[in-house]
């Protein structure tokens, strides 16, 4: 894996014995101890993640806001300094380029955070549209480290490390502010990806190791553990949060993925608006739903969802395929198989029985309300 990119924290992983994997061209830890134990730590105590492989773009200029408003489906005009929002970004045909976060640092100055697999693609896509606007888009990804502290004890762990005048309890979802953590100047936000309380820390890459070690040392007494991408995936799936390449792709629109609330048709024109509007008017052909298995089994991504209502495929006498799973796992919290799946809207409206074809064995499943897991407030 020597050709893979590495974050600034790689030397610490190498000494810790973390299990490394290729994730979108990055050599990243999938687990430090075990995925189950790391998952449980985040649900009950706290976990520390390195997500420095994510991309960061600076969008700056007199028309930076107008530019982002034209490129994203959500309403960027609602942002003021200190606030962030989530938004899909789509192609003219409505398929998804990426889903991302936008931070309004100050007037006409934004930080756009994109998925690691899409950094170059997203930069090229945005840059191709800059000609109509007075705006500059700069890739600052190599300059940032991004750490996430997630779990019910996150605030207790981080509060002693930030500036005395900063109250993390007052930092509401999709808000951020500048402060210092262990003496390092950072941007700290509240836009978590695990279904738990938590914080994201954007820091200069050269200070990543200092922050990682200090947060782990100070959090150890409260049960903080380092966590890999394996637990991050099971946590986000229980919270029914989309992952690009699974619930969102160039062939899956935000409306199909159930992200209607992030598509603001009334804000005016944006790239892909016409296609999405037409899809909404004609009826979305498939919808993302949550499935729980009624028998033992572990669903995975890209497995057929089939009808159990009696209709068979004429070519092979197997149950009719009515959809496809996009993500699946054995839920550590619920102790049962769960999956997100894109299913034919017409079949959903009829309420027919369905199952997941797991390597030739059909496991009955039922549609459930999302998210699968909701934390106690």
Per-chain topology:
Elements (H helix, E strand, L loop, with lengths): L9 H7 L2 E5 L2 E6 L3 H10 L1 E5 L4 E6 L3 H8 L12 E7 L5 E11 L2 E6 L4 H10 L7 E4 L4 E7 L3 H5 L17 E6 L2 E6 L8 E7 L3 H12 L4 E4 L1 H10 L34 H10 L3 E8 L10 E4 L13 E10 L6 E8 H6 L3 E5 L2 E8 L9
Parallel strand pairs: 3-13
Antiparallel strand pairs: 1-2, 3-9, 4-7, 4-8, 5-6, 6-7, 9-12, 10-11, 11-12, 14-17, 14-19, 15-16, 15-18, 16-17, 18-19
Helix pairs in contact: 2-7
Notes on the structure:
The protein is α+β, with helices and mostly antiparallel strands. A hairpin with a 2-residue loop joins strand 10 (176-181) and strand 11. 21% of the residues lie in helices and 33% in strands.
Radius of gyration: 21 Å
Q: Pairing-aware structural class of the strands and helices?
A: alpha+beta
Q: Share of helix among residues? A: 10-25%
Kindly state the number of beta strands: 19
Distance between the termini: 42 Å
Strand order of the largest sheet: 10-11-12-9-3-13
Note the beta-strand portion.
25-35%
Question: Could you give a quick summary of the protein structure above?
Answer:
The protein contains 9 helices and 19 strands. It is α+β, with helices and mostly antiparallel strands and 377 residues long.
